[in-house]
Amino acid sequence: MKAAYYNRYGGPDVIEYGDLPEPVLTNDKVKIQVKAVSLNPVDYKIRQGVLKLITGKRFPKLSGADFAGLVLEVGSDVRVFKPGDNIYGNVSIFTGKNGALSEYLTVSPDRIRMIPEGMRYDQAASLPVAALTAQTGIRKSGELYAKRLLVNGATGGVGHFMIQIGKANGAHVTAVCGTNNVDLAKHLGADEVIDYSIQDITKMNKKYDVIFDAFGMMKTGTIFQLLNRKGRYFSTLFFPPKSFYLPLIGLLTGKKMMSANLRGKPEDYEKIETLFKEGKLVPLIEHTFPLEKTREAFELLENSKPRGKVVVSIS
């Protein structure tokens, strides 16, 4: 089968396109013809070797945690799916398992779901990591109706979902983005937009109940300055922060800082699927590459700030 893979850790230049053995179906797995894969920062961080003590030195490796496709075969122990089903899902690549950037993939049935009616393959592949990360932030925020939500990195892969999910939950959403993306942030539903290239958020004398930092680079001082008492800050980066005094400040002020990395329980998927069906959550996809151009897709994701999701389409 054709695949995009790498034989050593490194930048996009280590990605190769060629033939790999087709995966063998086992009794407890589902074999999928992959139609689309969306790329996330976690994919290239693992390829760079950030977690190589966990992912190991066994090559070749395939990136691509999020995918959508068509069920070709099911193992004898599988009862939930059947050939011809349109599915999407997420495969864990943290433990060294291969991703989905290939023509075929075998996965456990608990890693996939039926694609909702009216959703395209590329849209479905865009959802798991990014939309579920945003949904995790919403879930941990509690009641959001009429609360002030600040989204930093608002038009990227996770941020553009957070704007939409935040609005759907009744929040007053302020988006932080660059000049070229101001109109897009408004189109996605932001009530206010801060253009970081010409506006200094620390001098605007505004407070927020929730800050979702999709970019993950806000300074600690800025965070505590902008949060209301008992406010919540969420980052897409792993936590807790290294600063030893944060727990004490949190104890005194009620302000908390935490991770919003995805949780993929059925009820989480159901929430984002419902929002899609209601027209309140629409994946933004401006860049699509064929499988043989996977290297170029990663170069765009790693070296630019693409709007929405970057998708690899596999025919």
What does this structure look like?
- There is one protein chain.
- The protein is globular and about 60 Å long.
- The longest helix is centred in the middle third of the chain and has 14 residues.
- It is an alpha/beta fold.
- Strands 3, 4, 5, 6, 7, 14 and 15 form a seven-stranded mixed beta sheet that branches. A six-stranded parallel beta sheet has the order 10-9-8-11-12-13.
- It has two domains: 157 residues, Quinone Oxidoreductase, Chain A, domain 1, CATH 3.90.180.10; 131 residues, NAD(P)-binding Rossmann-like Domain (Rossmann fold), CATH 3.40.50.720.
- The protein contains ten helices and 15 strands.
Reported by name, the CATH topology of the largest domain is Quinone Oxidoreductase, Chain A, domain 1
* Helix/strand order, N-terminal first: EEEHHEEEEHHEHEHEEHEHEHEHE
Q: How many strand units? A: 15
Named CATH architecture of the largest domain:
Alpha-Beta Complex
Helix content: 25-40%
Brief summary of the model shown:
This protein is α/β, with parallel strands linked by helices. It contains 10 helices and 15 strands.
